[in-house]
Write a structure and sequence with these properties.
single chain; alpha/beta; 8-stranded parallel beta barrel; 11 helices; 8 strands; binds flavin-adenine dinucleotide
Length: about 280
């Protein structure tokens, strides 16, 4: 199966992110969303991983299943905090044996109760090094335009990110709501001599309460005017507003020459298909 680094080199890419559902009904929605989004001919898709391995089997089965039945690659997200080196090596060997050659290497989050993280890893860069040492994987990493919330200073975070990206093939960003933080990150990386492709992650805000919770956790600034319009909208109006806002953001990013667009689908095809359609038409 293709390496994402080669797809990006021939870009621009279009990619969709899914999460492993917990119920049979969720599984059916995921399959429906994948089927509908197939029509947009994505360059690749990705499947998230529950921190500490809580979705280890489900993520693996979805990624392997998509790889076996589609022409495009499915990338496995993989977090390292809480895992041993042997556990990660075993999972990577299984992926390679099943034709999965693209991994998004992440730290994940330490335990929420504040207890010290167990396992052999602390930072995503250590996972990137391990993946590089065991096989021919294309490796992506996460980037935070508005600075990672565990960072003490912007400067240190950018320096760690640039060093991590130098070992990786590409990075995908946390979502953001206006182009400025993304462009600032791109300029900072440029100044630090980092030329690794940076894909913007875009989320359609279909559920403002849950997106705000994630935004607060991840330090993403929520534009107050857009938010008050969303909160006052009916469910149908909200979909229109979310799509309109995301299409506008994507079109500004495309004008800035981004190497692709990564959509957080939340396992629903409707809004993502419309945003992706506009991107394909050169939004
Ligand atoms: P790192 O790159 O390790 O950075 C974490 C913190 O450590 C930062 O503050 C950084 O500045 C600092 N740091 C890095 N290196 C050093 C160093 N050498 N010395 C000192 N400080 C350092 N989480 C999941 O659980 N599952 C998923 O599937 C998932 N998918 C994601 C997909 C994307 C596109 C993004 C953007 C995030 C995703 N996350 C996921 C969230 C991610 O795991 C968390 O945000 C996590 O807290 C940080 O992960 P990281 O890989 O950016 O960590």
């Amino acid at each position: 199966m293709a390496h994402i680094r080669d797809l990006i080199a021939g870009g621009p890419t279009l990619s969709f992110e899914f999460f492993p559902p917990k119920t049979d009904e969720g599984q059916r929605s995921l399959e429906k969303a994948i089927g509908e989004l197939d029509l947009l001919e994505p360059s690749f898709v990705s499947v998230t991983y529950g921190a500490g391995g809580s979705t280890r089997e489900r993520t693996r089965d979805i990624v392997v299943g998509i790889t076996a039945t589609h022409d495009y690659p499915a990338m496995a997200h993989l977090t390292c905090i809480g895992h041993t080196r042997a556990e990660i090596e075993e999972l990577l060997a299984d992926y390679a044996a099943n034709g999965v050659h693209n991994i998004l290497a992440l730290a994940g989050d330490p335990p929420v109760d504040g207890s010290p993280a167990t396992g052999d890893f602390r930072y995503a860069s250590e996972l990137v090094q391990l993946i590089r040492s065991v096989g021919d994987f294309s490796v992506g990493v996460a980037a935070f335009p508005e600075v990672h919330p565990r960072s003490e200073t912007n400067r240190e975070d950018r320096a760690h990110l640039a060093a991590k990206m130098a070992q990786a093939d590409f990075a995908i960003t946390q979502f953001f709501f206006d182009p400025v933080p993304f462009l600032r990150l791109r300029d900072d990386l440029d100044r630090l001599g980092c030329a690794t492709p940076l894909l913007p992650g875009i989320i359609p805000v279909l559920n403002p309460a849950s997106v705000r919770r994630f935004a607060d956790l991840n330090g993403a600034r929520v534009p107050p005017r857009f938010w008050s319009r969303l909160e006052a909208a009916t469910p149908d109006e909200r979909v229109e507003l979310a799509v309109e806002h995301a299409v506008e953001l994507v079109s500004e990013l495309v004008a800035e020459g981004v190497p692709g667009v990564h959509l957080y689908t939340l396992n629903r095809a409707d809004a993502s298909a419309r945003i992706a359609g506009a991107f394909r038409l050169g939004a």
